[in-house]
């Protein structure tokens, strides 16, 4: 299942989860999909093309949808290429037309090599796995079918309206039809479409929804919306998406959800697990949400890429607020100026927003975590991507997590390199200011003082009177390493540092929230950082198996005590 709910009632669907034949690195056996190639014994460090094959019974026009193939995918049916896709964290579909009824051979080539052509996926402080890492599905459709259904609620004076956008597509022949929307027993007509053969037509309409029930973290009420395409009085195709009626607005230094200020108590989370790599099964995703809740958290940041839509559905249903982020972590000037960087970033932003705009849990979009925001040649890239996000979705605020503030703020003397500013030069672009900081871990400064310095600097450099989020704070600990001396890397030391950091942050008036780095330990690319013990980022409050470290009770105590 790509989603937690049925997305169509009229299509014949085949869930493509299960055993496929995998050929990679001398291995030629069956392997479970979705899954990471690195979870196959013997392929733990494999980089190369993984060839997945399986037979499928189908007929007519078939849409093959993939939620995530890492990182470059080529899809073939009966030896003929249907399409290709760059980027591990957003999904894609390919269509096979007029298939004869019977058995067909589906082949997916997943390439996890990192190089010039993978501008966003580079060796990094997280692992880029390989394989068909998220769910996939085949659906039979007629000549006319729907796609790209998105829902954006708007609330004013207690009245709700819904903006619905949907695409009507023709595989081969032109058609005329009408589209209606069904919401909880009410029917709204979207209008007529006239679609040329092999082409598409978009419909975009907004209507009042008198029956709407609001969504909130306390009462995360999801509303299914079914869109139906009718031709000559027959229902030719349908699509179901869900919305949650809520608004997100910025007022001074506050983020308002349905008019009420929210305080973020969140966790950064990588899609990573000791047993599954980045291909967490639904039960493991649901368990992560339970851990977040049990520790008093109300939010998650999808550091540093768009997450599995199934996880976002679970967040919608649990009322967990989501900061969703387009893909990029810590890329420096030369990496940002590579020819592939901007086009791949634009593609990632577009695919993320088109796919995820309907999730009520997403309250903010993030981009370009700790990239070169202090470099004059890179600032225009930030400007372009922020305005793209705003044009695709004006209903949510935008932010970027940075760690670049003027060195002099913390008493260091520093002369910026040529072409660089002294600190982040992009804060004026955002609705919310977000800083990553590790006082007590990378820096020997009390958190309280550090946050005060950062805020004062941000206020004077484009962040005046804006909400302020501490988007990362944390310290490392190796699970099971206990030390009476509270030594570095011990669970005790991590708990101490988190207590000091969280208290310093939470006591600061005007802070809109904090995301702890991080929920669980995660694997790091071997090529990236040999100095990370175990080749893992060990700042999780749980380890990679979700075993809780001592810091969990510290976090819980502080999060629960804070209103
Ligand atoms: C950064 C970065 C994270 C992680 C963290 C750390 O702030 O955004 O991805 O690398 O540092 O653990 O040092």
Secondary-structure topology with pairs:
Layout lengths: L11 E4 L2 E7 L2 E7 L15 E18 L2 E2 L1 E6 L2 E7 L5 E20 L19 E2 L3 E6 L2 E13 L2 E12 L4 E9 L2 E10 L4 E9 L14 E9 L2 E10 L4 E4 L2 E4 L2 E2 L2 E5 L13 H13 L4 E3 L7 H10 L2 E5 L7 H4 L4 H16 L5 E5 L12 H14 L5 E2 L1 E2 L30 E4 L10 H14 L7 E6 L17 H16 L4 E6 L5 E2 L12 E2 L13 H11 L2
Parallel strand pairs: 21-22, 21-29, 22-23, 23-24, 24-25, 26-27, 27-28, 28-29
Antiparallel strand pairs: 1-10, 2-3, 2-4, 4-8, 4-10, 5-9, 6-7, 6-8, 11-12, 12-15, 13-14, 13-16, 16-17, 18-19, 19-20, 30-31
Helix pairs in contact: 1-2, 4-5, 6-7, 7-8
The chain binds alpha-D-galactopyranuronic acid.
Q: How is the biggest beta sheet arranged?
A: 9 strands, parallel
Give a count of the beta strands, DSSP E runs of length 2 or more. Answer: 31
Structural class, by secondary structure, is: alpha/beta
The whole-angstrom Rg is 24 Å
**Name of the CATH superfamily of the largest domain:** Glycosidases
Instruction: Report the CATH topology name of the largest domain.
Output: TIM Barrel
Q: Taking all residues together, what is the mean pLDDT?
A: 96
Helix content: 10-25%
Low-confidence stretches: none
Strand ordering within the main sheet:
25-24-23-22-21-29-28-27-26
Discrete helix count: 8
Query: What CATH architecture label of the largest domain applies?
Result: Alpha-Beta Barrel
Q: What top-tier CATH class of the largest domain fits best?
A: Alpha Beta
Q: Report how far the terminal alpha carbons are from each other.
A: 37 Å
Number of domains: 3
């Amino acid at each position: 299942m790509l989603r937690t709910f049925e997305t169509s009632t009229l299509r014949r669907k085949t869930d493509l989860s299960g055993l496929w034949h995998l050929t990679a690195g001398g291995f030629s056996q069956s392997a479970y999909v979705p899954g990471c190639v690195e979870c196959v014994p013997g392929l733990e460090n494999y980089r190369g093309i993984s060839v997945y094959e399986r037979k499928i019974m189908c007929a007519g026009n078939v849409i093959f949808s993939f939620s995530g193939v890492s990182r470059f995918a080529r899809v073939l049916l009966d030896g003929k290429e249907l399409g290709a896709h760059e980027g591990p964290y957003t999904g894609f579909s390919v269509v096979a037309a007029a298939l004869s009824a019977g058995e067909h051979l589906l082949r997916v080539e997943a390439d996890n090599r990192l190089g010039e052509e993978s501008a966003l996926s580079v060796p990094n402080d997280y692992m880029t796995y390989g394989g068909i890492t998220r769910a996939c599905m085949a659906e039979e459709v007629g000549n006319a079918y729907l796609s790209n259904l998105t829902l954006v609620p708007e609330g004013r004076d207690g009245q709700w309206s819904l903006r619905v956008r949907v695409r009507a597509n023709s595989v081969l022949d032109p058609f005329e039809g009408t589209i209606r929307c069904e919401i909880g027993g009410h029917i709204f007509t979207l209008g007529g479409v006239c679609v040329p053969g092999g082409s598409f037509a978009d419909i975009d309409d907004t209507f009042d929804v008198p029956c709407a029930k609001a969504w909130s973290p306390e009462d995360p009420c999801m509303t299914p919306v079914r869109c139906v395409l009718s031709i000559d009085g027959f229902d030719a195709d349908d699509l179901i998406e869900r919305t949650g009626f809520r608004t997100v607005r910025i007022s001074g230094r506050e983020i308002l959800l349905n008019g009420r200020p929210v305080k973020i108590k969140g966790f950064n989370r990588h899609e990573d697990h000791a047993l599954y790599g980045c291909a967490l099964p639904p039960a493991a995703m649901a368990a992560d949400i339970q851990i977040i809740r049990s520790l008093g958290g109300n939010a998650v940041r999808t550091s540093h890429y768009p997450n599995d839509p199934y996880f976002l559905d679970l967040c919608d249903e649990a009322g967990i607020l989501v900061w969703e982020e387009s893909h990029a972590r810590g890329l420096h000037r030369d990496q940002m100026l590579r020819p592939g960087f901007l086009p791949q970033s634009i593609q990632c932003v577009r695919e993320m927003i088109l796919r995820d705009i309907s999730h009520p849990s997403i309250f903010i979009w993030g981009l370009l975590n700790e990239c070169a925001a202090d470099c004059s040649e890179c600032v225009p890239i930030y400007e372009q991507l922020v305005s793209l996000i705003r044009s695709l979705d004006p209903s949510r605020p935008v932010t970027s997590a940075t760690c670049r503030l003027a060195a002099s703020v913390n008493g260091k003397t520093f002369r910026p390199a040529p072409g660089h500013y002294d600190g982040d030069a992009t804060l004026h672009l955002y609705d919310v200011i977000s800083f990553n900081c590790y006082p007590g871990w990378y820096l020997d400064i009390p958190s309280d003082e550090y946050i005060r310095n950062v805020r004062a600097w941000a206020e004077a450099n484009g962040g005046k009177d804006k909400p302020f989020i501490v988007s990362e704070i944390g310290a490392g600990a190796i699970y099971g390493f206990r030390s009476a001396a509270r030594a570095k890397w011990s669970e005790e030391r991590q708990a101490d540092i988190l207590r000091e950091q969280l208290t310093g942050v939470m006591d600061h008036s005007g802070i809109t929230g904090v995301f702890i780095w991080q929920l669980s330990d995660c694997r790091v690319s071997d090529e990236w950082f040999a100095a990370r013990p175990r080749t893992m980022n060990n700042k999780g409050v749980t380890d990679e198996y979700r075993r809780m470290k001592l810091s969990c009770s510290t976090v819980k105590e502080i999060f629960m005590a804070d209103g």
